[in-house]
Design goal:
Pfam families: DUF2254 (PF10011)
Number of domains: 3
InterPro entries: DUF2254_membrane (IPR018723)
Strand content: 5-15%
Strand order of the largest sheet: 1-8-4-6-2
Largest sheet: 5 strands, mixed
Distance between the termini: 46 Å
Number of strands: 8
Shape: flat
Order of helices and strands: HHHHHHHEEEHEEEHEHHEHHHHH
Keywords: Membrane, Transmembrane, Transmembrane helix
Protein name: DUF2254 domain-containing protein
Radius of gyration: 28 Å
Structural class: alpha/beta
């Protein structure tokens, strides 16, 4: 919730509106005559200046923010807009500007009422000085933040950080603390099916909630969808091992699945990786033709994919009544390297970078992730040999592949 712009604005606005009545309550603590010595009557023009300037600054900042979003959308891919919408630094700065505007407006209104005498005006003057200091700090932060807002480096770093968090969480607790639902797992044929109440993407699956519900019903839950899947209304989400599930438990189980119209980074590592893949493929498009940017993304992707190579944990899962599909390692490469290899099939530098990155993943991983990296390298090599027209480029690619 705190990543939503309007939530931060509402919180700061509520704080600013409460600060003005607080100044009135603190009026009794101000010594008589202090208002004349510090010039508290000057608070009226200061509040008027704040109200005028903060409205203009807020409007200008919103224009800059939307312009940066459009630039990132067109330059680096439509889904990079999602990460910019979650930019908490921008949200906090805009919330301060809106809060200062509301503080000034409410202060100007209450100054015209009998509530504010000379002592209360001194307290309001002190509050105004604190607000001005907060505005100055926010403007400095905003200027520093605007240097990179919407740029390739900052957008790439933000997507990389969010994807790394979800990959590390998944590597630390595979299946988010549930049993792995594999092809060998037998689903209860006569079990009660839990169906999607609406169409959309599965943003999150609250495994702990499903565990509590399964304990309450003394049954087991087999989740048949994965985070990031698009489901239709009425499509199967999970299956309980009992056929007479309580209606209240079934209703609560539906709330254990967050289904909305767009994917998020929280529990969906493939979304972050696919956004990075979008950035590399957009850089390789004929309109941009920037192989160096694609190579930078390839290098970052190799480090991210290695985060999925978690240590094997022999401990029993915390949610022992829930089964969840594990993340297939091949999906990590299908969303990233395979797509880049397809769009960069005619570029020898991109193909060499892919072989180098996939070789690094294969050497530093083991098990299924290593085998998936080798399969992706073979597919990339095949696309490169088919796409490169110069014989010397094909020879370089084959030598690089053999060396890897």
């Amino acid at each position: 919730m705190l990543r939503l712009l309007y939530v931060r604005i509402i919180l700061i606005a509520a704080l600013s509106l409460l600060s003005v009545p607080l100044a009135a309550l603190l009026g009794d603590l101000i010594p008589p005559g202090l208002a004349d010595r510090i010039g508290a009557a000057a608070v009226d023009p200061i509040l008027a200046t704040l109200a005028t300037s903060m409205l203009a600054v807020t409007t200008f900042s919103l224009t800059v923010m939307t312009g940066a979003h459009r630039a990132a959308w067109s330059q680096w891919g439509p889904r990079t807009h999602v990460i910019l919408k979650d930019d908490t630094a921008t949200h906090s700065i805009l919330a301060v500007f809106v809060g200062a505007y509301l503080f000034a407006m409410s202060g100007m209104v209450l100054r015209r009422t009998p509530i504010f005498g000379e002592q209360e005006s001194v307290a309001l003057f002190a509050m105004t000085m604190l607000v001005i200091a907060l505005i100055v700090v926010s403007i400095i932060r905003w200027i520093a933040h605007l240097e990179d807002l919407g740029s390739f480096g900052e957008t790439l770093a933000q997507v990389e950080r969010r994807a790394a968090v979800s990959l590390q969480a998944l590597a630390k607790t595979p299946c988010y603390g549930a049993h792995a639902l594999t092809e060998e797992t037998e689903l209860p044929e006569d079990g009660q099916v839990l169906r999607a109440p609406q169409p959309g993407y599965v943003q999150q699956i609250f495994v702990e909630m499903l565990q509590e519900l399964a304990q309450r019903a003394e049954t087991r839950v087999y989740v048949t969808v994965y985070v990031g899947d698009y489901v239709q209304e009425g499509q199967e989400l999970a299956r309980f091992a009992c056929s007479d599930l309580d209606a209240e438990v079934a209703g609560d189980a539906c709330r254990a699945f967050a289904i909305e119209g767009a994917r998020t980074f929280v529990q969906d590592p493939l979304f972050g990786l696919s956004v990075l893949g979008d950035m590399a493929c957009r850089a390789l498009s004929p309109g941009i033709n920037d192989p160096s940017t694609a190579i930078t993304v390839i290098d970052r992707l190799s480090s991210l994919v290695l985060l999925a190579n978690g240590e094997q944990n022999d401990k029993s899962p915390a949610c022992d009544r829930v089964w969840l599909r594990p993340l297939p390692p091949d999906a990590l490469f299908a969303e990233t390297f395979d797509r880049i290899a397809r769009d960069g099939a005619t570029n020898i530098e991109v193909q060499l970078a892919l072989q180098r990155a996939l070789a690094a993943i294969g050497m530093r991983s083991e098990g299924e992730l290593e085998q998936a990296a080798r399969r992706s390298a073979a597919r990339s090599l095949a696309r490169g040999l088919a796409g490169l027209s110069a014989a010397e480029d094909r020879d370089r690619l084959e030598r690089a592949s053999r060396g890897s």
